[in-house]
What does this fold into?
Amino acid sequence: NAGVTQTPKFRILKIGQSMTLQCTQDMNHNYMYWYRQDPGMGLKLIYYSVGAGITDKGEVPNGYNVSRSTTEDFPLRLELAAPSQTSVYFCASSYSRPGTVHQPQHFGDGTRLSIL
Amino acid sequence: TQLLEQSPQFLSIQEGENLTVYCNSSSVFSSLQWYRQEPGEGPVLLVTVVTGGEVKKLKRLTFQFGDARKDSSLHITAAQPGDTGLYLCAVPTGNQFYFGTGTSLTVIP
It folds into this structure.
């Protein structure tokens, strides 16, 4: 059972480079999320999607872009990498709207990104 | 100001000890979830509490939702090294989940 799969697991970027973090889920979940986790700061929501073709900003969207062309995939794009984007990035999915049927979020194992 | 305040931020205890960690807010929530995150992995759901005053048990872990649904506690009895990890509380807000900053627990053998 794959669940939520994130690639790559590790990446080092130079300032100003761009990259795409991949996320795919095989549970037919409607809701997908991108978080970043910094030491001592918990999880901060970057972007989320309630279904294919629909995305919205979270708490910390600046410097990132997303797309949701299929139910399965929710890639996160960094256009001009900055040192402040050094973090661990987690993708998650859930079947329904938070709080409606108490469904859990299923998380991937994260992408550890360093910007130097 | 954080929507959810977790305390303590760090906790290091000996195997066999008991401990309680807290998740507090000034807001009322329809439900609250607790997750555990082990090093190098994503968070995994432990429990969802829904009703004010509700108590749920998961082996040696006891979760309680405050009567006013503004806060929650997690009590671990006879902690084991396998309990080591980051404990996060989370609440639904619209189409999103909001996470607390977490309690990092280390259980020393």
User: Anything to note?
Assistant: The radius of gyration of chain A is 13 Å. The first strand of chain A starts at residue 4 and ends at 7. The mean pLDDT of chain A is 93. The interface with chain B takes residues 4, 31, 33, 35, 40-43, 45, 48, 50, 56, 58, 90, 92, 97-99, 102, 104-105, 107-110 of chain A (CB under 8 Å).
